[in-house]
Amino acid sequence: MDWVNVLVQGALLGGLYALFAAGLSLIFGVMRLVNIAHGDLIIFAAYMGLTVVTFTGLHPLLALVFVIPAMAIIGYVLQIGILNHTLGDDLLPPLLVTFGLSVILQNSLLEIYTADPQKMDAGVLETASFPLGELQLGVLPVLTFGIAVVVIASLQWLFYRTAIGRAFRAVSDDQDIAQLMGLNKSHIFGLAMALALAVTAIAGILLGIRTSFDPSVGGGRLIFGFEAVIIGGLGNLWGTLVGGVILGVAQTVGAKIDPGWQVLAGHVAFLLVLAIRPQGLFPRISG
Amino acid sequence: MDEPLLQITKLNAHYNDFQALYQIDMSLSEGEVLAIIGSNGAGKTTLMRSISGLMSNASTQLRYRGRPFGALRADQVAALGIALVPEGRQLFPSLSVEENLLIGGRLGRKGPWSLENVFNLFPILKERRTLPSTSLSGGQQQMVAIGRALMANPELILFDEISLGLAPVIIKSIYEALPHIVGEGISAMIVEQDISKALSVSNRVYCMQEGRVSLEGVSQSISREDISHAYFGIT
User: What's the distance, CA A26 to chain centroid?
Assistant: First the structure.
């Protein structure tokens, strides 16, 4: 039973990793941009949530009402103002610019909030649990996983069932021809980044409720996000969820064997997938 | 009709150091069908890319209903009512046939063309509407590309290499559809390798050679001899 518990907890943790990864996957899918600052943007969102909670006294989950639109607006402005100018045939400029952004974000957060670990207080939600058979499931991990499923299902629906999703796919296929159809790619990219950072906002708040964070932990979240995307297969959102779950399970299994192995076990699982199936488990098959 | 729909004045175009177009002058009246002929590398595709906004130009080199538009982006040119059927179809591979058409119609310009009318023009596309666009034959893909451009309800439609790489029977059916398209009051510019086809569907013809206009004339009365001189540069 112990091991079943480990697997279930790992799978639920995977929901959080899928949320880290979804924004990353979306941005790469639409505009072939690898956003090195993604992890720091998650932490930035967590701090923004912390600030809202501190000033308003709201529950952290309610802070999402502010943080989601704020992150979306920041995403649009960031894309139109800076990142669009880096996109082109050369992959290096966006990497360098988002790396620079990562450094700036970390240091700004350090200046404002210091290096002390912070945490958002979500009250009973943090410790509440319910029995399922012989297992005890935490409400927060189950809620996080549920949110991840809803977010990914919504993104999937948006991509394949709506006009804006069609525009995202068209621009991703061929920017010039999409432009001929009257799609302004700068604007479409801005919307994609807004959407990605809205998801990042959710990931950041859930992270900030679950664990303590400080300005330096963004890089680690970026790696987990990347690994989930690669394991699942590029461009496949449901694959990203599976990738997150595999990563989460590997980490909890590793931690069960020896607490020091938690992060290492995740990386090993990632490397194994990469060695056996370099294209990921479910690379984009049907568009 | 004194003011032409499209007026091209001293248009130059460059790819880095290479100059592809030299001082092109052309005009197109409303309802007119122009044929653009010329050998490979004459600058026909560059001309299409310039007009559609994929290559930027000095603002006043291109005028649409008297309004300069050379400096506009491609999406803004599309909003004016100029649509391009690009060389080699260039459909969106991750979109279905119907989605490719819907993307073309997203500007929401008013006019006779709708999904239904495109399906009436090319009934085969209705059967294949849910399939990925890449699963179609070359000819059917060309129909999607034409339909996609029509969905924008353009006033001017540019066909780049309309029959390149297609089987003769398909070319025939596409040319049979052409009168239904321009019959709806749409003006057209057709880039075509097949000179007799080009002359038979157009009002006037421009021949290009090495980035310059080498001949201009009325399609019905232009002499074959002049064309071969203009085409190959033999004088």
Answer: 10
d(CA A202, CA A219): 18
Contact check, Cβ <8 Å, B75/A172: no
Angle at B23 between CA B22 and CA B26, to 5 degrees: 120
Q: Specify the number of domains making up chain B.
A: 1
B103-133 pLDDT tens trace:
999 888 999 999 999 999 999 999 999 999 9
H or E element: which one contains B20? strand B18-28
Please tell me whether residue B109 adopts helix, strand or coil conformation.
coil
Residue B115 in domain = yes
For residue range A257-271, list pLDDT tens digits in order: 999 999 999 999 999
Asked if the Cβ–Cβ distance from A181 to B75 is below 8 Å, we say yes
Q: What architecture is the A2-122+136-276 domain classified under in CATH?
A: Orthogonal Bundle (1.10)
Domain residues for the domain of B31 are: 6-232
Q: What is the CATH number of the domain that holds B193?
A: 3.40.50.300
Cβ neighbourhood burial of A31 (10 Å; 0-12, 13-18, 19+): buried
Tell me if B1 is assigned to some domain.
no
Angle at B66 between CA B60 and CA B67, to 5 degrees: 60
A192/A168 Cα distance (integer angstroms): 7
Residue A56 pLDDT: 95
Contacts of B90 in chain A (CB under 8 A): 174, 177
- Return the pLDDT at B235: 58
> What sign has the CA pseudo-torsion B182, B188, B193, B195?
positive
Distance from CA of B16 to the nearest CA of A (A): 15
- Alpha-carbon separation of residue A247 from A10, A45, A202, A223 (angstroms): 8, 23, 20, 11
Residues of chain A contacting B83 with CB distance shorter than 8 Å: 180
